[in-house]
Amino acid sequence: MRSDATRSGTEGTVAISVVVPARNEEATIAAVVERSFQAFAELERSGEVLVVNDGSTDRTGAVLNDLQERFPALRVFTHRRNRGMTAALQRMFSASRGDIVILIPADMESDPLLDVPTLVRKLETDDLDVACGWRQERRDNKVLASKVYNTVMDWVANVHVHDGNWIKAMRREVVESFPPLRSDWHRFLLMIAVHNGFRVGETPTFYQPRPAGSSKFGWERIPKSFLDVLVLKFLLTFSEAPMRFFGGLGLVGLVISAAVLLYLVLLYVFAETQQRPIFIAAGVLAVISVLLILVGFLAELIVTQGERITQLEKQIGARNVDE
């Protein structure tokens, strides 16, 4: 297969980038690519398709190699081992050049010829930043898990859509606002977008059971996703102001320890008795609280330095472009 650099050397922007994570999808990947380019023609827009071959052990790589001969705007990236959808999306988001970036699966549960135009028109007609697909008449064994996921997203992140972990079209500024993605954060792109203030909407889209192959996801993802959403919620809420978290906990601890110590003093003065275990516990709580406040100060220093480094990187990048 041709190297990634061979396909990523074209400069300039295009109207639409379709990104497709693929692992062992030899039976369907050709249809996804072909129908994506047909969708560009229907919309009369320029477009590119980016595919990550994520450690496939079947003929997915060979099929993509043949497709590259037919479609110059197909760009293929290869992971020698399976690194997961999040790593695949991170690579494609960074390499994409479209004003609109659309995430499509490689299994043909979504038909790009139908769904790409639907998402683009929804995005532009309603002046949205993110347009999500809502699978109609879905019939698979993950409906319950999907309902749990969407309920949690609604409750925790104010993501008010019916099918948040499905296809979506995003404007370029949304993709550029994402932090470095890790773990299984591809499931929480809407959560990040809503936190960053982007407008999110949804539209009914086509759905069919996958015609070949098997799903790469099972029920074991639920506890992992629950932990991931807690971590991401914490980072989104406190990453720019960590003192609010650590300092808040520290202040609450100091108030509790001070109240306990005051109670013990009054108890000693008026009742002439002591509660030594409670006194020790209050002292330990006070020490821990002070340490939490100090951690908050250190976290603020780290965040400040990180922002300065980010600003320097942007200045250096802008200078290199000008030169």
Description of the structure:
- This protein has 323 residues and is an alpha/beta fold.
- 55% of the residues lie in helices and 14% in strands.
- The protein contains eleven helices and seven strands.
- The chain has helices at 4-7, 29-43, 60-70, 85-95, 112-125, 143-157, 172-177, 189-195, 221-238, 243-271, 276-322, and strands spanning 14-22, 47-54, 74-79, 98-103, 130-135, 168-171, 200-205.
- It has a seven-stranded mixed sheet with strand order 3-2-1-4-6-5-7, sandwiched between helices.
- Strand 2 (47-54), helix 3 (60-70) and strand 3 (74-79) form a beta-alpha-beta unit.
- Residues 5-10 have low confidence and may be disordered.
Discrete helix count: 11
The helix content, as a percent range, equals 40-55%
Number of strands: 7
What is the terminal separation in angstroms? 34 Å
Overall 3D form? elongated
Class based on secondary structure composition and strand pairing: alpha/beta
| SSE topology string | HEHEHEHEHEHEHHEHHH
Radius of gyration: 25 Å
Mean pLDDT: 86
Record the strand order, biggest sheet: 3-2-1-4-6-5-7
How much strand content do the residues show?
5-15%
Low-confidence stretches: 5-10
Largest sheet: 7 strands, mixed
